[in-house]
């Protein structure tokens, strides 16, 4: 955890889901759920990464024609994830790398507080599913 503490408040390239093959695997993953306004896909990665999780965001061009709105939603989502990823990293403790994809499913641009709340509850659900041992 000492290695990760300086980067807790950043979101670097190594934490992004950039590999096309990993992205394709993730789209066909078994575990997904909806935390409005997102559909969240999560999978244990087939390729170990530097960090406990890699994250990607998808905003439909069909729903948001203007790139300005799509980029704003991606920025807000990235910021919310960056602020709350420490919870996910804290519970990972040397497990495999997770690949996470947030797909924005609403037709309107929501305010940051609603996006942040959805990301936070999605992270909690991921922690419970992947890291907590059922008793």
From TrEMBL:
GO biological process: tRNA 5'-leader removal
GO cellular component: ribonuclease P complex
Entries under Pfam families matching the protein: Ribonuclease_P
InterPro entries reported for this sequence: Ribosomal_Su5_D2-typ_SF, Ribsml_uS5_D2-typ_fold_subgr, RNase_P, RNase_P_CS
Domain of life: Bacteria
PROSITE patterns recorded: RIBONUCLEASE_P
Coiled-coil regions, chain positions: none
Reaction(s) catalysed (UniProt annotation): Endonucleolytic cleavage of RNA, removing 5'-extranucleotides from tRNA precursor
UniProt entry keywords in alphabetical sequence: Endonuclease, Hydrolase, Nuclease, RNA-binding, tRNA processing
Entry GO MF terms: 3'-tRNA processing endoribonuclease activity; ribonuclease P activity; tRNA binding
The enzyme's E.C. designation: 3.1.26.5
Role summary: RNaseP catalyzes the removal of the 5'-leader sequence from pre-tRNA to produce the mature 5'-terminus. It can also cleave other RNA substrates such as 4.5S RNA. The protein component plays an auxiliary but essential role in vivo by binding to the 5'-leader sequence and broadening the substrate specificity of the ribozyme.
Record note on quaternary structure: Consists of a catalytic RNA component (M1 or rnpB) and a protein subunit.
UniProt cross-references to PANTHER family, sorted A to Z: RIBONUCLEASE P PROTEIN COMPONENT
Assigned protein family: Belongs to the RnpA family.
Protein name, per record: Ribonuclease P protein component
Organism: Odoribacter laneus YIT 12061
